[in-house]
Design a protein that fits this description.
Distance between the termini: 13 Å
Protein name: L,D-TPase catalytic domain-containing protein
Largest sheet: 8 strands, mixed, barrel
Organism: Streptomyces javensis
Shape: globular
Strand order of the largest sheet: 1-2-3-10-9-8-6-11
Oligomer: single chain
Number of helices: 2
Domain L,D-TPase catalytic: 48-172
């Protein structure tokens, strides 16, 4: 984890192959780390991986910066650069038959195989297209994701308002056993 980071969102999967996770935002204060509320989350259908590939239906394990946000809805008051666009669209149904509509009303780009400082919609993949990309924090639709992490809408709004670029926010994500390494 970068030493200068003073905001860390820890997303802990229930196990390596589970799409269920818990997310907690930690803030570094003058006396140590303060934990925020624990929130239920979903990750990818098949769980987590150290070697993410396009279409593997696993979320990439690791520490990634959080630099850019966007969505279909107006900026809820984030300090991150925010790209409001109707192109943040999800349609159809998820793996459990749940509607995907509204899932991208708010997103925060996870800087995995993307160029920080660009819209979450930017499809540039520095590691190449086979390594996947477009990994976001987004609104939960009630089921597993393709590789993203999803949180309830109120948790996404709260997170968007809390994250501050000058605090160098990162996400630490993976199953509990992998995060203990």
């Amino acid at each position: 984890m970068p030493r200068r980071s003073r905001q860390v969102l820890v997303v802990t999967g229930h196990d390596r192959n589970s799409p269920l996770a818990t997310a907690v935002l930690y803030e570094r204060t003058g006396v140590g780390w303060r934990a925020g509320a624990s929130r239920a989350a979903h990750n990818a259908l098949h769980g987590w991986t150290d070697d993410h590939r396009e279409g593997d239906l696993r979320s990439p394990i690791g520490v990634h910066t959080l630099t850019d946000a966007g969505g279909r809805l107006a900026d809820p008051g984030t300090r991150l650069p925010y790209d409001r666009s109707d192109r943040f669209t999800a349609s159809g149904t998820g793996f459990d038959g749940e509607p995907l509509s509204g899932s991208f009303d708010y997103v925060i780009a996870i800087d995995y195989n993307r160029r920080p400082g660009t819209s979450p919609l930017d499809r540039t993949r520095p590691l190449g297209p086979d390594r996947g990309g477009g990994i976001w924090l987004h609104i939960d639709h009630g089921g597993p994701t393709r590789g993203c992490v999803s949180l309830a809408e109120d948790a996404m709004e709260e997170l968007l308002r809390a994250l501050a670029p000058d605090r160098e926010p990162v996400v630490v994500m993976g199953d509990a056993a992998s995060l203990e390494r």
